Design the sequence.
């Protein structure tokens, strides 16, 4: 797996290499807040439309009429889609389609209003029942259309109401037509009142549209920030996993493969050749189980004695007859399996180094454990080495011992000189 460097990466929000592995998690995060805000807006709009629709319906059935004709048909055309929209918004099913039908139906009712009210007596001081549905039409447009069409709808509904109201007053009995044409007396005031009503309806429509736009924009912004955070975490986790795997595989290569190759190259006696074969077999086994080795095994607690036996078993695999000097207090509790495995592997690497570089001269291993800590000492009487001269690409000490103990929450120290080398592995229990 290759992770691009920082200069090569796309922005996190659009990087398909980061988004793709997230799958449904990223998709859910991208619309988490937006979906919930949309649901809240739907319920609020449904409640508001129910209140205004009830008021309009009560005024509609209370309006005197000569017969159940055009106006009755318009009442059905207005309130049937409105009821369907309120139900859809409340349940969350077919909300957009029902809102679109309601918005179109209310515009049709406004356009046909002069036909329904032709010849009827009109009280200029009383708003017709259609007045209460103007903002309902805008709210329906907010739930049904995009922002540009919402604005167009608000202007259209307000202007259409003003026009049909003037036409209604002009055609009403009582000589209003002449007054509206000449602009004299109370009829001029009526025309000004109609314009003010239309403007007031337009202002309310603007408030409704602005509130819907702000809530939705805020929700989209929150979802975008959440999506970027999830993608950033995924990218960091991916990079960390790659680096951990690289270090683990490098340590594995040094512990097993490189050590086996060096042992095979230097083998000059039957015993050394047998040791090289054993190390090669171990290397192949660990490579075949690399995925399990990277995970460092189970974290289930094991007794300290398993650390002692694990070190002795590893030495036996290296054709060494080694007895560990163990001093384990009876009060010493078990250690986590991950820690025990790290100590055994680090000790095994130290033993392998003593065999390869010191010929196993004076090799001795001691384990001390009590209720607070566990300590392992691996020492030899070889010629030692110069730590500063060790190439940076050699990971026997850095990766397989020091880094491995650090990853398990422990510490490794190496002391070397002309009298030999001592590797100290220490792990203290958390307090």
Sequence:
């Amino acid at each position: 797996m290759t992770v691009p460097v920082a200069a090569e990466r796309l922005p996190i929000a659009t990087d398909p290499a980061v988004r793709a592995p997230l799958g449904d998690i990223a998709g859910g995060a991208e619309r988490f807040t937006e979906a919930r805000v949309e649901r809240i807006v739907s319920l609020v709009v449904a409640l508001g439309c129910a209140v205004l629709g009830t008021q309009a319906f009560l005024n509609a059935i209370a309006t005197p009429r000569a017969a159940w004709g055009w106006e009755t048909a318009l009442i059905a055309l207005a309130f049937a889609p409105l009821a369907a929209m309120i139900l859809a918004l409340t349940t969350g099913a077919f909300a957009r389609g029902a809102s679109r039908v309601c918005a179109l139906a209310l515009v049709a009712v406004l356009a046909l209003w002069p036909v329904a009210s032709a010849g009827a007596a009109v009280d200029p001081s009383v708003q017709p029942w259609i007045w209460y549905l103007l903002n309902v039409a805008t709210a329906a447009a907010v739930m049904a259309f995009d922002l540009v069409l919402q604005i167009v709808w608000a202007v259209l509904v307000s202007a259409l109401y003003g026009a049909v109201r003037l036409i209604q007053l002009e055609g009403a009995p009582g000589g209003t037509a002449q007054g509206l044409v000449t602009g004299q007396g109370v009829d001029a005031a009526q025309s000004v009142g109609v314009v003010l009503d239309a403007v007031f309806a337009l202002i309310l429509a603007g408030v409704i549209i602005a509130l819907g736009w702000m809530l939705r924009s805020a929700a989209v912004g929150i979802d975008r920030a959440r999506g970027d955070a999830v993608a950033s975490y995924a990218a960091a986790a991916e990079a960390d996993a790659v680096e951990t795997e690289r270090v683990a595989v490098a340590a594995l290569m040094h512990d097993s493969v490189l050590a086996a190759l060096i042992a095979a190259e230097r083998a000059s006696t039957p015993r050394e050749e047998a040791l090289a074969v054993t190390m090669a077999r171990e290397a192949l086994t660990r490579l075949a189980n690399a995925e399990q080795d990277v995970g460092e095994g189970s974290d289930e607690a094991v007794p300290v004695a398993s650390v002692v036996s694990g070190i002795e078993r590893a030495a036996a695999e290296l054709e060494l007859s080694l007895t560990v000097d163990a001093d384990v207090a009876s009060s010493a509790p078990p250690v986590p399996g991950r820690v025990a495995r790290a100590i055994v592997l680090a000790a095994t690497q130290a033993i392998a180094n003593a065999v390869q570089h010191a010929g196993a001269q004076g090799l001795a291993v001691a384990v001390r454990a009590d209720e607070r800590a566990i300590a392992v000492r691996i020492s030899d009487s070889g010629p030692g080495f110069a730590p500063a001269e060790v190439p940076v690409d050699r990971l026997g000490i850095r990766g397989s011992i020091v880094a491995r103990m650090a990853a398990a929450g422990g510490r490794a120290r190496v002391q070397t000189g002309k009298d030999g080398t001592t590797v100290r592995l220490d792990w203290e229990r958390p307090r």
In short: The longest strand covers residues 420-428. DSSP finds 14 helices and five strands in the chain.
